[in-house]
Description:
293 residues; mainly alpha; 0% strand
Amino acid sequence: MLGLLAGALCIGFAPVLVKLIELGPTQIAVFRTGLSAVILLPWLLRYTLKARKQGISIFELRVIGWLGLAALAFAADLYCWHRTVVYLGAGLGTILANTQSLYLSIFGALFFREKLSGIFLFALLLAAAGIYGLVGEIPTWVSPENYAPGLLYGILTGLFYSVFILSLRQAEKIKLGWKTLEKLALVCALTTLLLIPVSISTGEWALPQGVSWLWVILLALGPQILGWYLISSNLPKLEVSRSGLILLAQPLFATILGALIFQENLSPIQFIGAGATLIAIWLSQVKKSKKLR
Length: 293
């Protein structure tokens, strides 16, 4: 339980680091995944060489396909989420991203023949009401021209995030090919390759300057590698309901950090909306079918 909580808190630092880095949103994503891929590359090469010596097939087409889809979804997720954080702030951007739980349940019903329970339908309505309260008024720290694009990017973030998680889970079900750490290394590398031309086309291509290098390195080492490793390795150890509740520490922590560091203080209505949205996210995870796990 402590490992899962540590992972959630670690990822909660991500939006703060994104706001501290003086680069374009896409360029931040490039360095985030690129540095992570470089750090994880030794594990990928070591396992690949070991598998070849033992005659183990690692280039399983189904695994490559799911990891490719995961990389595409992750690239789109980071493209949208980094913009959401820049436009709407650390807390609000993270809460919107965590609506991926609702999307996952809907995908489970559409593609895996899972039934949507009455609890989930209630959670969906509660989330809609909560998000309306959360975004019904423009926060004081948000520029009016950034408000609508930020909301759109936030909604798309949850969608792409859910596709990313679902793709990784499908790849994990296939025992052939790379192990978890090697799969994450490959996803980071593919994501970087997808984001580089996007970054260049948007005119964001630049190198970090000064202290931004420190924030980029911390973003790669902390949330991207350590945070995801702690969450991935500890999720199977706990029941779904407890895991979902613990993972809510991520958006809560990000909201607190946003208020303390960037003065992103929610109004009473927004505070109630945030609470309702988080409860809805938890309810959707409590009743989520174990087939997606």
